[in-house]
Amino acid sequence: MHAGPKRLSILVIDENRLRASVIEAGLREAGYDHLTVVHDVAGIARRISEIEPDVIVIDLENPNRDMLENMFQLSRAVKRPIAMFVDRSDSASIEAAVEAGVSAYVVDGLKQERVKPILEMAISRFNAFSRMTRELEEARSELENRKLIDRAKGILMTTRGLSEPQAYALLRKTAMNQNRKLSEIAESLITAAGLLAPPDEEE
Predict the structure, then answer these.
(1) What is the residue-wise DSSP string for 77-118?
(2) Where are the beta strands (DSSP E) in the chain?
(3) How many CA atoms lie within 13 A of 87 on its CB side?
(4) What is the pLDDT of residue 158?
(5) Residue ranges of the chain with pLDDT lower than 50?
(6) N or C, where is the chain less crowded by C-beta within 10 Å?
């Protein structure tokens, strides 16, 4: 039994059985044996949530605009590495594919021996992109949290006459006592201060 990446579960979406067998052969030859092949794209979103694959390979022989748009919507929703093979394409479709988060978009490239490197490229691109997105998200929430804590410190300094270190120490102590995050305590304090503030004078 293969270990590591070979145990990836792969979903192949292809309405053309002959082409699907080319992809399947390429994957099996590369040692990927945990495969599901779906020939009918109707209700595919539900099938994906049932199968929960690690990677999706989509093969579209002669996709029309609607078909591509459906697949792009799908790829935005599933948040998994996707390798998409198409026979022909225009630059607008390629752009839309990148925007939709398709990790590898291959025009006129369905050959058995190309399936493995393209799949691996899709996975590594997806992982790099996910890591970048996650780091960006973490940085953003870190900044938000810091703003909350600063505002809460300001409220304590004004209402309780504390110095900044004292205000921070009080927030930290409260967070530890309640076993909650510092930013949660800060948010609660800001909310409470907003509720307790006297209403603005009517003009």
Answers:
(1) HH-S-EEEEES---HHHHHHHHHHT-SEEEES---HHHHHHH
(2) 10-14, 35-38, 55-60, 82-86, 104-107
(3) 8
(4) 92
(5) 1-5, 201-203
(6) C
What count of other Cβ atoms lies within 10 Å of the Cβ of residue 12?
A: 23
Dihedral sign of CA atoms 27, 29, 33, 35 in order: positive
The angle that helices 65-78 and 91-100 make with each other, rounded to 10 degrees, is 20
> What pLDDT shows up at residue 132?
86
Res 3: pLDDT: 41
Indicate the pTM of the whole model. 0.58
Reading the block at residue 156, the tokens are 């304590």
The CA-CA-CA angle for residues 173, 177, 183, to 5°, reads 65
Scored b (16 or more CB within 10 A) or e, 69-101 reads: eebbebbeebebbbbbbbeebeeebeebbeebb
The pLDDT score that the predictor gives to residue 200 is 62
